[in-house]
Amino acid sequence: MRKPGIGVNLCAHPDDTGMEYDPQELEERWRERWAETGRYEADPADAASDDDPTFITVPYPYPSGGMHIGHARTYTVPDVYARYRRQQGDNVLFPIAWHVTGTPIIGAVERLKKGEEKQLSVLRDTYDVPEDTLTDLETPMGFARYFIEQHYKQGMQSLGLSVDWRREFTTNDERYSKFITWQYETLRDRGLLEKGLHPVKYCTNEKQPVTTHDILEGEEAEFQEYTLVRFGHGDTVVPMATLRPETVRGVTNAYIAPDADYVYADVDGEQWFVSAAAVEKLQLQAHDVTVERRVSGAELVGERVTNPITGDDVLVLPADFVDPENATGVVMSVPAHSPDDYVALQEAKADDARMAEYGIDPADVDAIEPVPILSVEGYGEVPAQSAVEEAGITDSADPALEKATKDLYNKEFHAGRLNDDYGEFAGELVEDVRTRFRDAHRDEGAFGTMQEFSEDVVCRCGGDVVVAEQDTWFLRYNDEAWKQKAHRVVSEMDAIPENTRGEYDHTIDWLNEWPCIRNYGLGTRLPWDDDFVIEPLSDSTVYMAYYTIAHRLQDVPVDELDREFFDALFYGADAVDDAPDRALELREEWDYWYPVDYRFSANDLISNHLTFYLFHHAELFDRPQWPQGIVIMGMGLLEGEKMSSSKGHVVLPGKAIEEYGADTVRFFLLNSAEPWQDYDWRDDQVASVKNQLERFWNRADERIEAGAPDERPELEQEDRWLLSKLQQTVRDVTEAMEASETRSASQAAFYNFEEQLRWYRRRTETERPAARWTLQHVLETRLRLLAPFVPFLTNELHERLTGTPAEDAPWPDVDEEFEDDAVEASEAQIERLTEDIKGIQQSLANAEEDVPEADPDRIRITVAADWKRDVFHTVVEEGGNQGAVMGTVMQDPDLRERGNAVNDLVGELVDFVRGREESEVAALSELDEFAAYEAATAFLSREFDADVVLQLEGEDTDATKHAIPLRPAIELEADE
RNA sequence: GCGGGGGUGGCUGAGCCAGGCCAAAGGCGGCGGACUUAAGAUCCGCUCUCGUAGGAGUUCAUGGGUUCGAAUCCCAUCCCCCGCACCA
Description:
Layout: H1 4-12, H2 23-37, E1 54-57, H3 69-87, E2 92-93, H4 104-113, H5 117-126, H6 140-159, H7 174-189, E3 193-203, E4 208-209, E5 215-217, E6 223-233, E7 236-242, E8 253-256, E9 261-267, E10 270-275, H8 276-284, E11 289-296, E12 304-306, E13 313-318, E14 330-333, H9 339-350, H10 352-357, H11 362-366, E15 374-375, H12 383-390, H13 400-415, E16 417-418, H14 430-443, E17 447-453, E18 458-459, E19 465-475, H15 480-492, E20 494-496, H16 501-510, E21 514-515, E22 517-518, E23 525-526, E24 529-534, H17 544-547, H18 550-553, H19 563-571, H20 581-593, E25 598-602, H21 606-620, E26 629-633, E27 636-638, E28 641-642, H22 653-660, H23 662-671, E29 679-681, H24 683-706, H25 717-738, H26 742-763, H27 769-786, H28 791-802, H29 821-846, E30 858-863, H30 866-877, H31 882-889, H32 893-898, H33 900-913, H34 918-926, H35 929-934, H36 937-944, E31 947-952, E32 969-973
Parallel strand pairs: 1-2, 1-25, 7-10, 8-13, 20-26, 25-26, 27-29, 30-31
Antiparallel strand pairs: 3-4, 3-19, 5-18, 6-7, 6-17, 8-14, 9-10, 9-11, 12-13, 15-16, 19-21, 22-24, 23-24, 27-28, 30-32
Helix pairs in contact: 2-28, 4-6, 9-12, 12-13, 15-16, 15-21, 16-21, 19-20, 22-23, 23-24, 24-27, 24-28, 25-26, 25-27, 25-29, 27-28, 29-34, 30-33, 31-33
The structure holds one RNA strand of 88 nucleotides.
């Protein structure tokens, strides 16, 4: 497979020790090899007979634009897990497909066809679409196809994702639609779909529903449900819109814009008085409305209207702050609880002339007093009054008024308790009772409902967007039995990280009916009504099942893919009268792969897609086919900021790979944070990863060139130490991979082990045969551990080393033969001794005056005397209990004689033993300290360029420092 | 407001679940050295404060508490980020 270039290179430079790290060249070679051999195509037949296959999925990409580096990580994390499981011997399926359902692609095409600047710049500048290709993008599927092929697929292949490409499909494919049709017919039969009214965004100009993408202004607008309090004026209903229906008992008057247009209209057989602007909205919200008479607001001003709850008559006052465009254009005034209303009332009272102008007796206005209906801590009896007075607000133009109003609303909502007039609702918190209160009065006919946006919304066509009520089909996620089943899936699956489990449960509880169809868009038509399309979040709930058969379904004629076919496929031969053989054949594939072992997905999808996924699996499939696990992934930032394709603030995978190589990109994405944590793509960091990989490559290359004995030579302590550390690394990496902790795993295999190697190289002669054997063994193991992360580089090196690519070599096991606590303890002591000497040296070198010992000629190391060692053993036996140790030790007359010295020593040793692992303490207490240091004298001598004198305390020593076990006395000495 | 996550040394970012080996990994940046004609790359050392011997002091948002011992556990407070839908 090697390209001629390499061979030539080697021959032309026979002196070169090996190969330069050239990621572009070597990665391309492996890509070709994988494609040619179909390396990642997975079939049931590939499995060892008793094997449990692994099926992992990731949300299929939505190609309404190009792929950026954030997407790259989304797909690389599962790839690493897939590669890991393969090395563990599993038959692994990792498929991908394309989600095109809905309106975003259509919207993008529309904007392109209109020649919108912004859209053109995204396509040309951000995604480098060639000028002459732009016309291909003018159909929805043409657009999708371009980004699928030129961006996603290419990006994924460049990254080396181990995808089975035979199974790709789009959600607009006719076979897929048959599958969705089956799903929705089944759900309807089971009573989980329901027809009803639902608020949608509706453009009054285009006369059709619009999506967020069609909106020019007010994208953030929320639906607000106003309660209409049906005040009466003779036989006429005067519906007053409020967001606080519970304040109805505190209404003292009403307000109308006197100069605005109002109408008397027949609404569902009643006569209503509302603003002219409200007419169309009411019509759109499923009311029959016929305008009878147009009037100005002044018509009702000065009249009295009747509160449907209290029966009180209240005066209608003129007010310019009333917006006739909002809701019904008639509002009720609750001056005790709304600072706005309170101030407005004060101003009305002060303006006798204006009142008189509308034929209102100023005395009647003066008589209006706030009526408190709830009490809230921290405010006076009339909360609005205290709020206004405290803030020093005197007129309605004061900007502080808005804040005062908002604060009081909030406070009253969470802490206000309704007064005794509220009967069954009295004494309760507004927060707890508002909905119940509203519903109760709505049911008895005193209240109505109207939907309105929280701000003005304007369509891209320039038309006003309003709320319309439309007939639609809902998925009944509010169904109790269904919720229970979904909870059960959650309780039985693996939630990674574990703290997301509660979020699923929370979402399940909170989900309501979900409107699952739209008026237009790509995708599957509602089977029983062609006018509607099943929306994207609803056609993507069980598609993982489709992967298991997608490639083989191509051979089945579309019209055979009916209800029976899929019933037989998913539920077996007994589920239908006459099961098609084809379906039963495919059933084996489905049976083999399902369930999904892990789904890797984004954290913001918990609140919709992922929970839908759980709901639908819970309902449509049996328990053994339920999702086994979900791994949540964090968000990506670019140089500390959110990525945004419209601002051009993105990195494209193709460019990054060109610059750094796919292995570097992968390694950075997986090693900079755990999958569920947010990560930050920073160029300097990525460049540094490339350097590290290159250094790794160079070292490995030298190792391979240097060769090693076939037979294992006699190993030195240092070799045994390194091999022991290697076993711990294998253990750590494996454990981390099992928990999908890609960062911990790669950190342990790569960086942490580099630290060990650093000590090893410093400590020992690496050209010894035993060292070469050791290093080669270490390299081979590490290549396997790193293979899931950097497959190109490790495959190449491992193949050169052993003849087999790393990905085809089994995952390393811990080799107990090489686990050696004694050697680790001994080596740790030497390392510590080295550090201590260095510390002393440093301290002396820092001195203001010159201290000759800072550059010693001789280092005297004195190992603690045997009796101290005995005391240490006692400390170990007594488990670090100082009192018990002293008791035991003092029975020895020799020690008793030493009194205080023994006490001090025990204190230090107890301190040392506490907090250390028992196994470590055990190994240390077994250690022959003197022998350990003796074996390291040559090393120390070399390290400090000084003679090393090792002695035992109490011989003929004149050590001035005290030695204690495991802490020998150190003296630096300089000749005059 | 509700739900979730977080505040660590110049920056970034581990550690916290299972308290002690934590003055606290790694990376970046900075300083010094080796190599080099030189630069880069690479390698080695240093990078909270004080200190002429492996030490001491003060740190992990703030304030309390538990403990022989707290970055880690508990309580309170302040601040930051994300989601809250019918949209992928």
